[in-house]
Structure formats: C-alpha cells, structure tokens
Amino acid sequence: MTAPDIVIDARDVTLSLGKDAAQVDILRGVSLSVAAGESVALLGPSGSGKSSLMAVLSGLERATGGSIRVAGADFGALDEDGLALARRGRIGIVLQAFHLLPTMTAIENVAVPLELEGADDAFARAEAELVAVGLGHRLTHYPAQLSGGEQQRVAIARAIAPRPALLFADEPTGNLDAANGAAIMDLLFARQQETGATLVMITHDIALSRRCDRIVTMRDGRIVEGSVENALAGIDA
Ligand SMILES: Nc1ncnc2c1ncn2[C@@H]1O[C@H](COP(=O)(O)OP(=O)(O)OP(=O)(O)O)[C@@H](O)[C@H]1O
C-alpha cells in the first residue's frame, strides 16, 4: 500500500524507444517518491531525461517498465482513456510554451477545461483564478493581446483552476525575461502553497531550484546522488 501522503510513487521506471539495435534507453531505472505538498526541482543536463520523466509521471507517455502510482492511480493498470481520466482534475501541467488556445479569451482558456470536467460554475471559478494571478482586468483579452508574462499567468491559472493534487511545470519561465520570470515563479509558488498542491518543476536555473523543498538531479536517464554542483558539471544551460 502506498502511504496516503505520497503523491508520486515511481519505482524502477524505464522508458525505451525503438527496438533491437535502434533501441534508445531514455529512462534507465528511476525511483522517486514525492510527498503531498512538496516542491521538487528536476535538474540535469540537456538530454538527461527530465522531460521524459515528467511525461511518464504525468501520464502523457507510458513507461516501458517499473511501476508508477500517482495520486492513488496505478498508471500501469490503465489504458489511454484511463490515463486521461486519471490526469483530469488531478494533474495540472504548465509548459514553457504557454499553449493557450488563440481563438479563446483568457477566461475561456481557463473555464473551458473546467466545463469539460463538469463544473457548473466554471466561469466564476475561472474569473477567481485569473483575479488571483493579477489578471482580473484582462479576462476578455485574447492571447495575442497579452504579453508573454500575462500569457504564462493565464496558463498557470488554467493549470491550477481544477485544484490538481499535482502540478508539473516544464521550464515555466523559459520564454520570459528575468523580471517576468521571477514574478511568475513567485506566483507559482504562492498558488501552489495556497492550494496545497505538490509541485514538480523542470528548470535549468540553480537559484530557482533552491526555492524548492528538494532538488532531484538527473544524468543519462538516472537520478544521481551528490551535490548539485557536481551533478550539474557540464550542464549546457
Ligand atoms: N521520441 C524519441 N525518440 C528517440 N529519442 C528520444 C525521443 N524523445 C526523447 N529522446 C531522447 O531521450 C533523451 C532524453 O530526452 P529529454 O527530452 O527527456 O531530456 P531533457 O533532460 O528534458 O532535455 P532538455 O533539458 O534538453 O529538455 C534525449 O537523448 C533525447 O534525444
């Protein structure tokens, strides 16, 4: 049995693509346990497997081996539809590129996923989330009418609105300048703490990673032990 306060319980997870001589081993036995409410920074050189690990832990990609339990769901036992259902409402994802729908206003981008989940008060909740990220005056703006920082705030509101137990962020400040990036991170940590969500964030920024409760470093498809500086020797960012 998984302890109730463990949100991610991944054991000996492997991800290999291709077959025989063409096989690429992307994750080579990753075990990771993350407690409810914890924030974890995922660091490591380019190509070390961070995005791939996030993909299997968020149910977007299926691991080749090992076991993954997330928010009580056994990912290995679920088919594609089951994985989509397990993600819905439980897992929020913020990506480096904001992926807002260009034909929808800010409030629609946040409300429509809530409606799909069956919420009756989707627009009221979406408005409250956008107010919480400081965008109460931009509700009916389209993404093209918003700055990069504002678009990322909409993406954060959209990810957090369903109150997911688990929030993944893949370099959420990668497309923003330093000042906007810092403001977005303040916001992401504040919203994470308010909602009690668990946060797993990929970053190349060591200073940013130190704001998390824990730093997990990857290299060559594995989690490595030791100091962050040693583990990151050779990082190309
Ligand atoms: N579909 C694929 N087919 C073959 N190899 C792949 C595929 N997807 C990822 N890889 C390889 O898996 C390795 C890990 O990739 P991944 O994107 O997880 O690394 P990362 O640590 O997130 O890198 P970055 O920091 O550059 O985003 C890389 O060597 C990559 O080339």
Topology:
Layout: E1 6-17, E2 24-35, E3 39-43, H1 50-57, E4 65-70, E5 73-74, H2 80-87, E6 91-94, H3 106-116, H4 122-132, H5 148-160, E7 166-170, H6 178-195, E8 198-202, H7 206-209, E9 214-219, E10 222-224, H8 228-231
Parallel strand pairs: 3-8, 3-9, 6-7, 7-8
Antiparallel strand pairs: 1-2, 1-4, 4-5, 9-10
Protein name: ABC transporter ATP-binding protein
GO molecular function, one term: ATP hydrolysis activity
Family: Belongs to the ABC transporter superfamily. Macrolide exporter (TC 3.A.1.122) family.
Name the hetero compounds present. adenosine-5'-triphosphate
Look at the helices and sheets and give the structural class.
alpha/beta
Spans of at least 5 consecutive residues with low confidence: none
What distance separates the N and C termini? 40 Å
Task: Please tally the β strands and state the result.
Answer: 10
CATH class of the domain at 1-90 and 209-227: Alpha Beta
